[in-house]
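Final report, Chapter 2: Outcomes

The project's central promise was a pipeline that accepts a single protein chain and returns its three-dimensional structure in a standardized token representation, suitable for archiving and comparison. That pipeline is now operational. To close this chapter, we reproduce one record exactly as it appears in the project archive, with the input sequence first and the structure output second.
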Amino acid sequence: MFSELTGSQLLIVFGSILLAMAIHEAMHAFTSHWLGDTTAKEMGRLTLNPLKHIDALTTVLLPMVLILLGLQPFFIAKPVPFNPDQVRHEEFGAALIGIAGPLTNLVLAIVAAGIIRISGAAIGTNIFEMLSIFMQVNIGLFVFNMIPFPPLDGSRLLYAFAPEPVQRLMYQVESMGLTAILIFMFLLYPLISPVVINIMSGIYSFLLG
């Protein structure tokens, strides 16, 4: 994928990823703060500054290694911490924090699609290319993060409604940290990637009409 892009397209892609991830993580932080938790603010995460949300390993090193290996890269930002004991509405508050990021990405994709439709930007023009890439990045972040596998955001929504045995299992998986992410990326995601890609393509086509 990345080997087929021009230099300018790569800049747009990486710029879109940084911007979309920064807004995504900032919305987690703003939502947790709104729900009464001060953890994100105390750790300097209540900001749109992309540098505050970048993790050297999962945002930079791991994607570079995957690209060099010719594999699909995953850009994972530094998770925004929150204290469940400070959050109002318990599991449902945590679920709201979890889905705030992906839903923001969906809104950003809708806004970009709206600009394309209103402006009448034609395929092949610079403005269409920039907005189209920004749309695809945000749709990708929305769909990927809504997968209910810990520690992805979608797992917070599932956790709020799951029975206690499932909650315990999800907590054990999430406590594995990077190991859980690697298991998901290399073992589970290849199995569901066709479905994920079809959903992304469907949303993209629907938004552009």
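Archive annotation: DSSP finds eight helices and no strands in the chain.
This record, like all others produced under the grant, will remain available to the consortium after the project formally closes.
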